Amino acid sequence: MKKSFYLPFLSILFLIGCSSDDDVTPVNPGPEPEPPVEETPYYDIPDALSDYYEGIDFSEENEELYDDLATLTIAKHTNMLDYNNRHDYLYQADEDPNNEDNVILIYTGESRYWEEYLSGGNSYPDQTFNTEHVYPQSLVSNTAKGDLHHLRAADVQVNSTRANYPFTDGEGSYALVDGNSFFPGDEWRGDVARMIMYMNLRYDEPFSEIGGLDLFLEWNAEDPVSVLEIQRNEVIYGAQGNRNPFIDNPHLATRIWGGDEAANRWDADAEEDEEAPSAPSALTASEVGYETAVLNWEASTDNVAVTRYTIIVDGEEHENTTSTSTTISGLTPGTTYTITVTAVDAAGNVSEASEEVEITTNEDTEAPTIPANLAVPEVTATSASLSWNASTDNVEIAEYDIYVDGEYNASTANTTFTVAGLEAETEYSFTVLARDIYDNESALSAAVEATTAAESENGGDTSSEIFFSEYVEGGGLNKAVEIANLTGEDVDLTQYSVKKQVNGNGEWSNEYALEGSLASGAVFVLANGGTETQEILDAADVTLNGAPVDFNGDDPVGLFKNGTLIDMIGVEGDVDFGKDKTLRRKSSITSPNTTYTEEEWEVLEKDTVDGLGAY
């Protein structure tokens, strides 16, 4: 031990003794160090995807890479499609690459005419396929039900056979295994695996519910990405704003979860496809409207495969499609546009632009007809109910503007409206004009005069009609509507019904016909029977386990008399007017209104039900 200490100690003394600036020859430092070698990126991201995946560090793996991709996939999902919207995109996503009139069915691989889709609104006689939720809809959230990344066109009988069974391994074509699990077929293993991986990444849906991660990693490696998957990914990207990263590169699953080595579609060492597709040819435009035009062209060719076409309007990218025909929208009436189309392949190579076509959209200068037969069928001390005949227009009526004593009061899309906030025993003059979607206005209707009623003896007001007085949209199934009768007489409820609009889509549905009678000064409460709030159950006159009292905050609710809308809570257009709120009609409002007016309602905190059942 002493020796091993002593020698280094002498060395230190020697160095100290040789520290003179003049007497010691400097030690040769050797060659200059080499500059650090710049590492090759882990993946060679195609140019067409570089912007989408900007900010992702692909040198990461496991949980870090998973979290980054999940955050991106959620953030890019900017257009949340309702399940009913699937028809707008599913046929295009599943379109047969060799026959644009057909779709390819999952599990069977059959090509079928797109109008054979099974739907209550489809009049085509031979309806043979429907929508398959690859991750069963009974196991996912409402938000995930409409996500196109796990929706596929499927044969009706095969879809029924699959049911909600988890996936299992097998060989050959699709099959039900042991009566409780399903093998999708050799050609669909990878498709299924990558859709389930997306659902886990986007919604944290568990693998254990549907077959197991190890199985899907195996399928992802064994069955490479198909041209149809690439097509679907592009269509859904255009529809929703987000992509399935495991279709873009199956190897990402290997980086995250391990398992069998999947194909790397971004392999930096692989021979790169640098050949661009041919330019689309024979571009034509037809059926030019006010805001739309139909485009058709002949398909491009490529050494691998064309994955999409980009529509360019006045030099700017307008939209993408996988078809050789599309209807472009969002144009401005009376405007000239120059349009070209380019083709893009799987490697992101972009073709030369097609020859230009020039179009001029139609211009609308024609005003609607004047609203006819304006009448004031009902008045109270503070309100007047108006009605009139619908105007006509060469394009479309947007709204009617209501004027009181020559001054603008409000607008409505309906042909009835209740003017509120009037003074008792006062004569008013009412007129209405129609306005189309391009702001062409009709002349004012003929004026109609009406005098409001006197106030009641107790200083309050009476109503000529029953109306909604409270709305509850709380946690879980805490949902109810209250209807008040201030007419001064008992009302026969058999004339009335309640309906809702799904996501404010403009179509009234789920009608519930009221029964019995409602005494003067009393209220009627219609509630969801699934509520766990005893106060709602105590106040309810009728409970339903579903529609129309399964509304969400973007589902307008309407009160109808003999089929005619007389009162409405909410607005059209998928607007969250009542999400997690209790709305209570202000006591100054004693008449229905076919146009939802926020000023008529008090907004109370979620699950406030202390006033339900009493006006």
TrEMBL record:
One of its GO terms (molecular function) is nuclease activity. SUPFAM superfamilies: Fibronectin type III (SSF49265), His-Me finger endonucleases (SSF54060). SMART domains: FN3. Residues 449-594 form the LTD domain. Belongs to the EndA/NucM nuclease family. Pfam families: Endonuclease_1 (PF04231), fn3 (PF00041), LTD (PF00932). Residues 279-364, 370-455 form the Fibronectin type-III domain. Keywords: Hydrolase, Nuclease. It comes from Salinimicrobium marinum. Signal peptide: none annotated. This is Endonuclease I.
